[in-house]
Task: structure prediction
Amino acid sequence: MEQSLSQPVSSAWFLATGRVIDCAERPLIMGIVNVTPDSFYDGGRYADPGAAVAHAVALVEQGADILDIGAESTRPGAAPISEQEEIDRLIPVVSAAARRVRLPISVDTTKARVAELAIAAGASIINDVSALRFDPGMAGVIARSDAAVVLMHMQGTPRTMQQAPHYSDVVGEIREFFRERMQVAEQAGISESRIVLDPGIGFGKLLVHNLDILAHLSSFAMLNRPLLIGVSRKGFIGQLVDRPAAEREWGTAAAVALAVDRGVQILRVHDVAMMADVVKVACAMRRRAATRQEHYA
Result:
């Protein structure tokens, strides 16, 4: 652990509709609420609005700091849905959740109109897996609202992203992508203080690419923005442990612990209670290692 402690740490806060989201004390846990029939792990389980809101409340009780609600699956090979279908699935859940919980609500969407309605319903973060590329109106919607935005890296689209992705230097190429997308966001009127970055584990990456990203997470600190990681039950973990999505919680825990040690600020997970424990232990170990490092310096 001590080696990673010498690496720089990303910015430990961001703004979302005027609210300071502080990640300095410990990484924040973003609980996943999929209002979809076809997500790779829990598709269909929370498609009913009442079930989705109950799940959101349960995640808060388990220790979530942020809720991330999505109505369109972005699993590998997923087909897009219409704007109206996404609105019909998503907005009732966002509106009801905003009345029930006081935590920041993030919405996972690439569509400007969906984002606009979600913000009006109570969302304060737009988690855009396209990093403002798929809908030319998205940047303007976010800029006018003062919502935060998560800019995620992905090669291709969810339908095509796993068709032979290729990189010469995956970490370096993602860093350059982030610089370019941050510039686009700022030119549209989204201040740097409202930007969070996500290297997109599993989005247009092979196993070796995902491992390289995880091994070099601290290299993204030079961009000085909070880093979000989504490793929960993903396919690369299945490749490593040879288990289906329903049995990948321990592999997820290992990846989450590594991410904490590498200075990640936000962890997007399905299993909030379990990963909250992982974060507590990993943070305690990291702090103790830092103390010992100072003692022997």
